[in-house]
Amino acid sequence: MGRKRWDLVLGACMAVCVWSCNNDDNLNGDVKTSGTAHLYATTHTGQVKRYDINSGDVTTYNTASTDAEGIYFSPEDDSFTLVSRSGAGLETYANISSFRSGASVDLEPEFSIAGSLESPRDLAVKGNFYVVTDDTDLDEDELTHEGRIFIYTKDSNGFSLRNVVTTKFRVWGIEFIGDDLYAAVDETNKIAVFRNFLSNHTLNRIVTADKIVAFQGLVRTRGLHYEDGVMVLSDIGEAESNNDGALHVVKDFESKFAATSSGGFVKTEDQLRIAGNNTLLGNPVNVIYDSNYNVIFVAEASNGGGRILAFNDATSIDGNIAPDLKYTLAGVSSVYFHTR
Q1: Domain boundaries, the chain
Q2: Per-residue pLDDT tens digits of the chain, which is 340 residues long
Q3: Which residues of 264-294 are buried (b: 16+ CB within 10 A; e: fewer)?
Q4: Are strands 171-177 and 295-300 parallel, antiparallel or unpaired?
Q5: Domain 6-339 is of which CATH architecture?
């Protein structure tokens, strides 16, 4: 699919007003559609929603999980894999396109692996490697921070746990850029990178990040997503507040990160920041950036009881702006956008 402006697609979402009876929905505009544009969202009830941006249909998948956080859709397998907090593992659901769009369907996993995770948070996929963060306080000491990263492999028979590494900080969101894994250092304004992550860390052991960089103006990093040179970071601010969240957009991210010394920070003037009461950002726990539409999708956990938000013109907007799309989804925990 060619490069498009997101506002051309919003009109298709007029039909989506049936998604919820909440008057909070704000979906309008003219539309020219093509290809596939599916937004997947997990929830803390275990339901997965798929919003068809072109048609306005919403499909509800009732999974075996009762709490999910993290999702990846594989067009090759016509399946999605979610991180199950209730099942403490991964679950894959197949033949997704075989169900009628707009239906509510009960699913059983094609295969799963359970029992390893304690408090899973995010999922990053590279080839047949499925990498999951876990922010469990291993020593139950609030003065010492640690987290874990679980590395699974997937084949036609299911998942296998290859190894688990322990980080020297609480870890939340993760994102691959090439072979390097970037991770949000929870409770800080920092991002860490592990170079050649999958090949350098094959054993169960404590690992040290190759570099940690702070971002000026950011309070508490939670989600991150990278595409075509642009990194979007979500800032939940104070966890108890539902109106102090923000998004930080960093263009030419790799060069700015490389130019900053470990322990240093990327200046505010090298970022775009979306924040303020008009944004409806309180606790943006997960984000997806799509460069074709130049849009940011946000899983907003607290404002309005839980919402999915979208911001148009992502690489040029800044300040206290209203989202271009908003609708209520209680318990939303992560989002994934598939387009072609």
Answers
A1: 6-339
A2: 333 444 434 433 433 333 333 335 543 332 233 488 999 999 999 999 999 988 889 999 999 999 999 999 999 999 999 999 999 999 999 999 999 999 999 999 999 999 889 999 999 999 999 999 999 988 777 778 899 999 999 999 999 999 999 999 999 999 999 999 999 999 999 999 999 999 999 999 999 999 999 999 999 999 999 999 999 999 999 988 999 999 999 999 999 999 999 999 999 999 999 999 999 999 999 999 999 889 999 999 999 999 999 999 999 999 999 999 888 999 999 999 999 8
A3: ebbeeebbbbbbbeebbbbbbbbbbbbebbb
A4: unpaired
A5: 6 Propeller (2.120)
Whether the full predicted model's pTM is greater than 0.85, yes or no, is yes
Count other Cβ atoms within 10 Å, centred on residue 101. 14
Alpha helices in the chain (DSSP H): 197-200, 253-259
d(CA 336, CA 329): 15
Taking CA atoms, 7 is separated from 4, 10, 193, 323, in Å, by: 9, 5, 34, 12
* 3-class SS of residue 197: helix
Structure token digits, residue 277:
């009461």
Q: Which two tokens stand for residue 127?
A: 């080839």
